[in-house]
Amino acid sequence: MAGCLWGTGFFFGKLALREMSVGHMVLYRFLFATLGMLPMMLTGRRRAGDAKTRSWTRRERWILLVSAALGIPIQFLLQFEGLSRTTVSHASLMVGTMPVLLALGATLFAGERLDWVGWLALAGSTVGAGLIVLGGHEAGVAGVAPSLGGDMLVVLSLTIALGWILMNKSLMESHSPLAVTAYGILTGTLMLVVLVVSADGLPPVKTVSLTAWLALGASGVLCTATTTLLWNWGIHHVPASRAGVFLNIEPALGSLLGVELLGDKLGPFAWVGGGLILAAAVTLTTRGHEINAEVLLE
To answer: Is the pTM of this model over 0.85?
Structure first.
């Protein structure tokens, strides 16, 4: 579910970028995300009041601060700056590199192990994402053509996102996915307000069209608050390397949006790519895996 909703993020971002700067667009996205998190936070606090919750240590607070900085202002400002310099299809293609980065990071830093079948599935799903996007013909939005610089900024943002994912996973060993998500979004949004307002001034209000407001609301509530909570809950219950394959839903859906809404056409390579992604997802989710007793009891 998180992968499907994330897949619409670049499209909504492009709509908003027609009327405002990258900084203002990302700021509005996270202000809407904060509003979207409020009901879940209030519900979580009421539940926490009925049970004993573990307090945050000093080390965990520092991890949360670094994670929020990497995951929100740094990652998203770089990612959408890259999007402003390239096309939705190319940006979606770059996201196809994330599962491999995630599997590598989980193996190197989180002590997870992936066998040859898992690596083959990840490689196949990444190739599939590339085939889906490359199988369509480019149709740039607002006259923006693909560029190497824009593509590389998106890849850099994904490398930074790897740190955010692994830090969140470590925090969720002691705290609930809801708490980590809520505190992370609130902290990162405060950092974003300071950075964007000091650099670009206050965001526009009167000159923003209804289409842009709807795109900003959808990207904030659906593509940020809801997806972050779904992803954190999911990654709390499965290894990060195994969850990584589902990130390839994002470039797949991004490509389909390009076809349906931006006039791109899918060729035979794209159909093959979709089959590879589906096969990889089925492989990694149906194979036997060791059950974590603590998660089962929870």
So the answer is: no
